[in-house]
Write a structure and sequence with these properties.
By secondary structure, this protein is of the alpha/beta class. The chain has 2 domains: 110 residues, Rossmann fold, CATH 3.40.50; 148 residues, Rossmann fold, CATH 3.40.50. 45% of the residues lie in helices and 13% in strands. A 4-stranded parallel sheet has the order 2-1-3-4, with helices on both faces. A 4-stranded parallel sheet has the order 6-5-7-8, with helices on both faces. Strand 1, helix 1 and strand 2 form a beta-alpha-beta unit. Helix 7 crosses helix 10. It is elongated. The N and C termini lie far apart (58 Å). The relative contact order is 0.09.
């Protein structure tokens, strides 16, 4: 049976998880079962976790900030003889002495004060995980879905939008393959179709084929095949009423603004700066 550590937090547990992971890295090859218990903000919640740890023969590591749960943790740990590590208590006390101020004891303040940062990180993680058609089951929860043929710039545009807080999924449109069925679950005003002039598309594709060392003709660099793909994409946009943005000759900043304007997001709090 693996040794068990109960990580307890009144918030998300992110700070405690980071520190615990840092310490555990000093024990390479050692396996430890980590049981996270988050949003623990009542005496009853603390009592339940300590009881679990006692039954499992484990220890408790916590970042509780509210006074009553912290007191309950110390009391229950003594009664049940469970080792407890308070990751914040000593620092709270020293900072209180240093500043002459009492801590607020309110979980989640750090995240609240930096919510914009966390939103951006979440958006970037989502966008990376849903690049190039991956994770179609999550299309309905994306802020934006970008459609387009290969080499029309979906990925760099998606990443630029993600840095500004938008969770973006991009879906490649390939001749002969239907778009994912999950696309029908997305409101049309959250989907933007990207298009590009044929000559520019061919230049991008030939450059990519050259970098990959591809020799000889292929459907990917075929003039007629590329034209058919563009026509197929544009027909799809018309059929579903998706707004369209041409990427030809435009910097990513301009494209991002156009995309947000097409989906009616000009006044959203995450609108790109001028």
């Amino acid at each position: 049976m693996l040794p068990c550590v109960y990580l307890v937090s009144g918030g998300t547990g992110a700070s405690g998880e980071l520190l615990l992971g840092t310490v555990l890295a000093q024990f390479p090859g050692v396996q430890v079962l980590i049981e996270k218990r988050v949003q623990v903000r009542t005496v009853e919640g603390v009592e339940a976790v300590v009881a679990e740890a006692a039954a499992a023969g484990g220890i408790v590591v916590h970042t509780l900030l509210a006074e009553l749960p912290r007191q309950a943790m110390g009391r229950e740990a003594v009664q049940r003889r469970v080792p407890v590590v308070d990751l914040t208590g000593s620092l709270l006390e020293h900072l209180g002495t240093l500043t002459g101020r009492a801590p607020m004891g309110r979980p989640g303040l750090f995240r609240e004060q930096r919510q914009d940062y966390f939103d951006r990180v979440e958006a970037i993680e989502f966008t990376v995980a849903h690049d190039d058609g991956r994770g179609p089951e999550d299309l309905a929860v994306a802020d934006l879905v970008l459609l387009g043929v290969s080499r029309c710039g979906k990925t760099p545009l998606s990443m630029y939008l993600a840095v500004h807080g938008w969770k973006v999924a991009n879906v490649p449109l390939v001749s002969g393959l239907p778009p994912p069925k999950e696309l029908t679950t997305v409101e049309p005003d959250r989907v933007v179709g990207l298009t590009i002039e044929h000559a520019h598309l061919m230049a991008h594709r030939r450059e990519r084929a050259k970098r990959l060392g591809e020799i000889g003709p292929s459907d990917y660099t075929s003039v007629n095949a590329a034209q058919r793909e563009l026509q197929m994409a544009e027909a799809l946009y018309r059929r579903h009423g998706y707004p369209v943005v041409s990427v030809t000759g435009k910097p990513v900043e301009t494209l991002a603004t156009e995309v947000l304007e097409r989906v009616g997001a000009a006044h959203d709090k995450r609108i790109l700066p001028p």
